[in-house]
UniProtKB/TrEMBL annotation:
One MF term in the entry's GO annotations: hydrolase activity, acting on carbon-nitrogen (but not peptide) bonds
Name the UniProt record assigns to this protein: Imidazolonepropionase
Pfam families noted in UniProt: Amidohydro_1
Transmembrane segments: none
Domain of life, source organism: Bacteria
Source organism: Muricoccus roseus
């Protein structure tokens, strides 16, 4: 069993406003065994001198689509499954090299992809999958053109982000099938979206009974529902129906944010998605119907952060990027810093995102018993978030499950 003692570094603890010196971290196998402000002794561990660099938990992105190698999601679904899987592996490697050691996939990644990572068949972040996102005909999981009347087109392909199910019984069955296949939670499309061609932003996805059915099935399995949401009306009805994870929330208003906070919900804004789409979406194949919808949600994004913070609604870190836009993943830090304190942003990408992954205490922290997921960074993220950007250039070491995937410490 390989073991390491990391010493002589600055320790970043999520929630703290300053780094802490004099800490040592012992990694044995795939776990952190000891964290101490005194020297740790071990007869077998390799001592790693950090020379004053920052040691911190691996980052957690709570809203990704690892199989979205194309911005045009209809084309992404149509590609051969073998090709989609190879492209997903490349996307995931990029995420890991940016310091994201765990990601929560919000539609597309089959549980087998998570297993492939766990077995080190893919160099990527740990994946918390929901399987295919559930949506109604004409909703955000339906990427068919208006003239395309084929049923269930490409729903079983690796490259498809979602599946269509209409009616309470169909929603129950789809949720049960995803859970049976290994989904860790259920994702539903409860509002219109940007990347889909037929649903305006204001459109409400699913009836209340359909949403409640998905929530009941998730609760029966000991998990929760995450919902794609933009408008205040859609967010409110989702919370009323028991949805726990509120994705995007760009158009939320104060009263609804307060209600969601009281219900114990967690929001997951993804502001960088709209920045990326505005910059390159059209050039990368986003259809004109989708391009026209970008500004509706983009301009309200920063205000939504302030509204949710004032309401006490927790916000996890998410990016939601597609295709060639994945390179902008870490820009989410920069965007949030225009409104939020840096230490809160780091919590969003560590301990809070870990809660949505249902791995609280196991990821997003450097503590005894946690997964050995860590970064060594040249810089102080609490003072300069740019050291977490630039495609991981300032990350001298990236470790997941006790294995180095990058090591430039020598």
């Amino acid at each position: 069993m390989t073991s390491y003692i990391f010493t002589n570094g600055q320790f970043l603890e999520p929630g703290a406003t300053e780094l802490r010196g004099g800490m040592e971290v012992l990694v044995e196998g795939d776990r952190i065994r000891e964290v101490s402000d005194r020297p740790i002794t071990s007869s077998s561990a390799t001592r790693v001198n950090l020379r004053g660099k920052t040691i911190m938990p691996g980052l957690v992105d709570a809203h990704v689509h690892v199989i979205a190698a194309m911005v045009n999601l209809a084309e992404n679904a149509a590609q051969p499954s073998s090709l989609a899987m190879m492209r997903a592996a490349k996307v995931m490697h990029g995420m890991l090299m940016r310091g994201f050691t765990t990601v929560r996939d919000l539609g597309g990644a089959e549980p087998g992809i998570a297993t492939a990572v766990d077995e080190f068949l893919i160099d990527g972040p740990r994946v918390i999958p929901c399987g295919k996102a559930l949506g109604q005909t004409g909703g955000h999981s339906d990427f068919r053109a208006r003239s395309d009347d084929r049923e269930g087109v490409f729903a079983n392909r690796v490259g498809s982000l979602g599946r269509i199910c209409d009616g309470v019984d169909a929603v129950r069955r789809a949720a049960r099938e995803e859970i049976k296949s290994g989904a860790r939670f259920i994702k539903i499309m409860a509002n219109g979206g940007v990347a889909s061609p037929n649903d305006p932003i204001h459109a409400l996805g699913f009836s209340r009974d359909e949403i409640r059915a998905s929530v009941e099935e998730a609760e029966n399995a000991g998990t929760y529902v995450a919902a794609h949401l933009y408008t205040d009306k859609a967010i409110r009805r989702a919370v009323e129906c028991g949805v726990h994870s509120l994705e995007h929330c760009n158009l939320i208003r104060p009263n609804t944010a307060e209600m969601a906070a009281k219900a114990g919900a967690i929001a997951c804004p993804t502001l960088v998605a709209y920045e990326g789409l505005a910059l390159e979406g059209k050039a990368l194949g986003l259809g004109p119907e989708s391009v026209a919808k970008i500004e509706t949600v983009r301009t309200a994004g920063l205000e939504s952060l302030d509204i949710m913070r004032r309401a006490g609604l927790p916000m996890a870190f998410g990016s939601d990027l597609l295709g060639g836009l994945h390179k902008y993943q870490s820009m989410e830090f920069e965007i949030r810093a225009r409104v939020l304190p840096v230490h809160e942003i780091l919590v969003s990408a560590t301990t809070l995102a870990a809660r949505l992954c249902m791995m609280e205490g196991e990821i997003g922290v450097l503590a005894p018993g946690a997964k050995a997921d860590l970064l060594v960074v040249d810089g102080d993220p609490l003072k300069d978030l740019s050291c977490l950007q630039n495609q991981g250039a300032a990350m001298l070491a990236i470790m997941r499950d006790g294995r180095f995937f990058k090591n430039e410490l020598n």
